[in-house]
Amino acid sequence: MTRLADFSARAPDGSDIDLTAYDGQVVLVVNTASQCGYAAQLPGLQRLHERYVDRGFTVLGFPSDQFRQEPLGDEEMQAVCERNFGVSFPMFSKVAVNGRETHPLFRWLRSERKGLLGARINWNYTKFLVGRDGAVIARFAPTTEPDAMVEDIERALGPAG
Asked: What pTM was estimated for this model as a whole?
């Protein structure tokens, strides 16, 4: 069975990050774009990250320019997300989420949970919830606000203790 820990991704500084670092955690993978109208969700995603980080939860941001809404370079994009939106959760280098150049992580996520219109990601801020076992639990539409995912995140985290 393929799991989140089977993948790696590039950080904005160009270093490779092995996603085994998130093994055993509940993870929300989000394709982001700083110029997208849904970027207004970034503070809410940050609040989720802060609220549940001590229980083994993290948000992972993967910028994409496939919808022409992330014109910034990787390090500049990370700085904008930190400065303008208060983001401290991990951000990665830009990736393709559709097409021949799709990052392997997104190829897997899309195959595990199809959306309303199939596997293709139709817009920025599509979100995938991954359980502690590394399997995809749910896919959320770009319009899904961070607060609307609380119940699913809490269920995935299990009882607070």
From this structure: 0.94
C-alpha–C-alpha distance, residues 11 and 62, integer Å: 10
CA 154 to chain CA centroid, Å, is: 17
DSSP state of 111: H
Could you give the 3-state DSSP secondary structure of residue 154?
A: helix
Mind listing the pLDDT tens digit for each residue in 109-149?
A: 999 988 766 788 999 999 999 999 999 999 999 999 999 99
HSE value, Cβ hemisphere, 13 Å, CA-based, for 33: 20
A 10 A CB-CB count for 145 gives: 13
Active site residue 81: no
Give me the catalytic one of 19, 36, 59, 130.
Answer: 36
3-state secondary structure of 90: coil
Whose CA is closest to 30, among 132, 140, 155? 140
Give Cα 11 distance to the centre of its chain.
Answer: 13
Please say whether the beta carbons of 6 and 104 come within 8 A.
no
3-state secondary structure 30-79: EEECCCCHHHHHHHHHHHHHHHHHHHCEEEEEEECCCCCCCCCCHHHHHH
